[in-house]
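User: Can you help me understand a structure? I only have the sequence.
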Amino acid sequence: MKTIVALGTENKTSFSVVSKGNLFTSGAFCQLSDVDKFNEYEKAIKSHLASEKVKPDVIVCDMHPDYASTALAETLFSHNKKSRLMKVQHHFAHIVSAITDNAIKGKVIGVSFDGTGYGDDGNLWGSEFLICDKKSYTRKHHLEYVAIPGGDIAISQVWRMALSYLYHAYGEGFTDVNTPLLKRIQKEKVKIIKEMLVKKINSPLSSSAGRLFDAVSSLTGLCDVAKSEAEGAMLLEKIADLKITDTYSYVVDRERIIVSRMIKEIDEDINNGAALSFVSAKFHNTVGEIIYDVSSRIYRETGIDKVLVSGGCFQNRYLVDYIENKFTGSKLKLYKHKNFPTTDMNISIGQAIVAASAAGDE
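Assistant: Let's start by predicting it. Here is the structure, written out as tokens:
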């Protein structure tokens, strides 16, 4: 059997090694962009290989070209010319880890909702409906692309995502909309972001569910600047009213899931004085409806009845409870993670299994 080293992703990640027929997965490593933490991560990988007395036949990493883990994979490959370098799409790896976790064979509908994953088209993915097995995948549906003004800075300054979604919903006239957000953010900042959006300056496109949660957390006034990862999403979940069954509008247009009408309806609810607990629940319910609806459409088209969910958004208890209730009694079977985390900690596992399947060792 081949020795496979899978390096995971960039933040809150792990590495996995398939050696002598066994799968080893490390503990967590955070912020590999930090030199000291990256050195700790690299040392741990080399130490494990030395202890096993093996050299990698296959080195696997994420597709993102700027990740430190990708750079390390390329370095290891350059030092092991007999090895093979393999890059695995982020959300495919998420779903394959869930396939492995649930010991499922054959094709599945994989639903991967998270913050960021580099896509095949060079855009940032993050709300993917995939048909896949351990060897390959087809991307069937995703949230419509919106711009991330300023790139990574919008992950903390989440008001930027709210402005981006307003622009996407209303067009260039979004600055004339009567919404509380525009009264909280300095006019000069709004003007700069508008120019970035209109002129497409430093504004990569993303289908990220995580960025949608960020935008809604800012529109509601819960979180304009996140001091920690996914703070806005967690605040939204915390206040959601469990008694609410209402939903917002969305449209499935071929592969795109369009939520512009939902953004307008959220804005209308806020302006009409709706309780934030109501808005949050209604938003969560809509995301749950999208997951069930789109999965059902794929089932009707393909006959695939197994739906696997993975990615950071499925740490959200409200969302998970909602979809579990939706799928109960339906023709679809919902699977969550059993033993592996639903976060990026499972990426290296998925990478390793994809490589093992490609080598015929799985």
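Now, to help you interpret it: The longest strand covers residues 108-118. Residues 276-302 form the longest helix (27 residues). Let me know which part you'd like to focus on.
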